[in-house]
Amino acid sequence: MADACIVFITFPSDETARALGRTLVEEQLAACVNVTTPVQSIYRWQGAVHEEREVLCIVKTTQDRFDALKARVLALHTYEVPEIIALPIVDGHAAYLEWVASSVGRK
Which of 42, 51, 93, 104 is most buried, taking the most CB atoms under 10 A from its CB? Predict the structure, then answer.
C-alpha cells in the first residue's frame, strides 16, 4: 500500500486537463485522473500576485511511476513551471490500492 501516491497538477483549462489526463492513463502512468471543476488560484509569479481560474487534476499512481509521469507532464504542459506535487497514500482500501498498482506500468 505504501507505494501508491496522489499527484496534484493544475491546468489553464478543462480541455488541456482532460487531454493530458487521458494521455497519462492511456500510457499507464496513472490509474485514474479526476478532473475537477475550475478552482480559483491566487499565487505569486515573477514578482506579482495573480488570481486565475485553473482546473485541478487529482492523479492516482505509484511512487515507481512518478518520475516518468512527471517527465511526461513537463513535456506536454503549457505552463513554464507547472504544479506537480506528489503525496503518499499512507492507508486506504486495499483492493483499490491494488487496482492502482496493477493499472500502471512498471519501471
Answer: 104
State the DSSP code for 64: H
Residues of 58-91 as b/e, b for ≥16 C-beta within 10 angstroms? ebbbbeebbebbbebbeeebebeebbbebeebee
Residue 39, beta-bridge partner list: 54
Q: Name the phi and psi angles at 11, rounded to 5.
A: -135, 160
Question: pTM here?
Answer: 0.93
**Domain 4-103 CATH (choose: 3.40.50.360, 3.30.70.120, 3.10.350.10, 3.90.1150.10):** 3.30.70.120
- pLDDT digits 0-9 by tens, 6-50: 999 999 999 999 999 999 999 999 999 999 989 999 999 999 999
Q: How many CA atoms lie within 13 A of 65 on its CB side?
A: 26
CB 81 within 8 A of CB 68: no
Element (H or E) spanning 59, and its range?
strand 48-62
